[in-house]
Structures are given as structure tokens and as C-alpha cells.
Write a sequence for this structure.
């Protein structure tokens, strides 16, 4: 089966610009996660969706980050405006349910200059 | 609050030697514990998980980990390292009483395998 797809793989922007990332989960997976992985650190959960509803966004900087999962399938994560400290790899993962194995995409590496 | 500490950000072993990557956790409730591996420019892949069944868990690629409640540890081992094991390894904990399955990751350990 096809894995989790993410695009773009790399993105370079200037601070204060906006950027969007896209994730296509494994078909049939109800749960979708966005993680932020700063260089030298482990992934940190930004937001978790169950179908098209948010179940955890406690660590999402809501003044600049937003995410949506329309129709419970694809998801987009947006940053507006970007800051230097947003430079990181953004990982998308999906699973059949909250307690099932999470399958990770290859990530999008964002560099903010 | 749950947390994970991985002792040693870099571990170097010779090919054929024992691999030991250390993980200690903090959790107020019985935890679920995981080890993930990340190869360069790739996403994370699950190696193994502990979910309150057998305390010795076997995973893929010859890795195993033992849950020790008294030591709050979940160290990852492999008897004989291969060059292909060079990667970054993450330990993670999940709150077994949560309804979200949220994972808390450690900071990672980079494994270098020398020929």
C-alpha cells in the first residue's frame, strides 16, 4: 500500500512570509498527526485529527499556525507569518486509530531565513 | 506529566558489537513505550512497542527492548550491530489512560557503526 505522502520535501522562505504543507495519509486511516522536529530534538506533536475533527492542538502556536483536514482525508498545515525558530522538519503521520501504529511520511524540511 | 530521557545523544559501536541505547521514562500511569528509527531524510519507522504485555519486546531487524518498571527504563538492544543500523533512534511514551494515543518523544540517539 502507498505510504504517507508529503509535499513539498523542502522549502526555503524569508521570515514573515507564509508557507503551507500538504499531507496525504494512508487510505482509510482515521487519525492524522502533524509533528514539528527541530534539529537535534525529537518530534513534538502539533496537532492530531480524528477524521476531520481536532482531538489535540495543545502545542500548536495558534497565533501563527493553522491546520485543517477537509473531508477527513488530506490535511494542510500553514504558518503565517513564519519566524526563524520555525525552521524544522514537519512530519505528518497517520494511523487507523489513536492507539494504532503511526506511519510517518518523509517530512518537509523548512528553512526560514 | 510524561517525559522521556535518552542517555547519550551519540553512541558509536563497531560492526558486530552489542548495541545498547538507553531510555528512561516518567509517567504517573502505566505507560505504553515505543522505539522508532529514523534514517536520513526519511520519516520515522516503528521498531517495537510495549503495551503492558510481555516485558521483553522483540522488534524488527533483530532489536529488542526490556521494560523495567522498578528502573523506569526501556533500553533498546541488539546483539550484533550491522552497518545498516546507523541511524537516529527515538524512544517515546504514551499515556495509557489518554484517549488520544499522544506520543512524547525523547531527544534521540544517533547510532554510528564503525567497520
Amino acid at each position: 500500500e502507498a505510504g504517507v505522502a508529503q509535499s513539498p520535501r523542502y522549502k526555503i522562505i524569508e521570515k514573515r512570509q507564509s508557507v503551507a504543507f500538504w499531507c496525504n495519509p494512508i487510505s482509510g486511516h482515521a487519525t492524522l498527526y502533524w509533528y514539528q522536529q527541530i534539529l537535534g530534538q525529537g518530534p513534538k506533536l502539533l496537532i492530531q485529527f480524528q477524521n476531520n475533527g481536532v482531538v489535540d492542538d495543545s502545542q500548536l502556536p495558534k497565533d501563527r499556525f493553522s491546520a485543517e483536514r477537509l473531508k477527513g482525508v488530506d490535511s494542510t498545515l500553514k504558518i503565517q507569518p513564519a519566524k526563524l525558530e520555525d525552521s524544522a522538519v514537519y512530519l505528518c503521520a497517520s494511523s487507523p486509530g489513536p492507539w494504532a501504529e503511526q506511519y510517518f511520511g518523509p517530512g518537509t524540511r523548512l528553512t526560514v531565513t | 506529566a510524561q517525559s522521556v530521557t535518552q542517555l547519550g545523544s551519540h553512541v558509536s559501536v563497531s560492526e558486530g558489537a552489542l548495541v545498547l541505547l538507553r531510555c528512561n521514562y516518567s509517567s504517573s500511569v502505566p505507560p505504553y513505550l515505543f522505539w522508532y528509527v529514523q534514517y536520513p531524510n526519511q520519516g520515522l519507522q516503528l521498531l517495537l512497542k510495549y503495551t503492558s504485555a510481555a516485558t521483553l519486546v522483540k522488534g524488527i531487524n533483530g532489536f529488542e527492548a526490556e521494560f523495567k518498571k522498578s528502573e523506569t527504563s526501556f533500553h533498546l538492544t541488539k546483539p550484533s550491530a550491522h552497518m545498516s543500523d546507523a541511524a537516529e533512534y527515538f524512544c517515546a511514551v504514551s499515556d495509557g489512560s489518554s484517549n488520544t494515543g499522544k506520543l512524547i518523544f525523547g531527544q534521540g540517539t544517533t547510532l554510528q557503526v564503525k567497520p
Summary: The mean pLDDT of chain A is 94.
